[in-house]
Amino acid sequence: MTEEMSDFFTKRAEGYDEHMRKEVAGCQEGYPLMAKLLPENIKTLLDLGCGTGLELEEIYQRFPALSVTGIDLTKRMLSYCEEKLKGKPLNLICGDYLKVPFGTEVYDAAVSFETLHHLEKPQKETLYRKICQALKPQGVYLECDYMAKNQEEEEFYLSEWKRLTQELPQGVYYHYDIPYTVENQISMLYSSGFQKVEKIFQKENTVMLSCWK
Prior knowledge:
Layout: H1 5-12, H2 16-23, H3 27-37, E1 44-48, H4 54-62, E2 67-72, H5 75-84, E3 90-94, E4 107-113, H6 121-134, E5 135-146, H7 151-165, H8 182-191, E6 196-203, E7 206-212
Parallel strand pairs: 1-2, 1-4, 2-3, 4-5
Antiparallel strand pairs: 5-7, 6-7
Helix pairs in contact: 3-4
């Protein structure tokens, strides 16, 4: 059964950290790597789909005074994040990052970790353009996400999603994976305004991309 996105993560918020670190290949290595790859001189960061703050725990260890805006759809996930990072310069927004305005040239860096694989290509490209616009000149966006192993896998998930959506109400977010290949992800990022995109890390289906404005 396909669940609404917020309901899915509300039910799983309590055990989310353990699940991601122990059961999703690449995450245990990915969280500290993301923090390590951020440029030394950053002062402001945008975190899309920040959830319980797993990547932010690592980032704040390296940048304790970093001003962060974190956006997530699920209130319960954000409550865990707020409790975990109490006292940090962190502004949490419960909302849809496709709709929440980011501003222009506001952030030194942006990150997302295992969240964008629920979006179709037009949504991703719109979001990437927003991220690129929100970054200061020479800003960096780090994306760690679930990506398809090949074109056949991508097409299978996309065709299943299209079949499912025929029976679902429109205008609602559902928890369903729509992974794209690394090559297609990189192509989307370039077409959305990023000047340099590199694959930094991969373990099974978990891939990290570094994208420079």
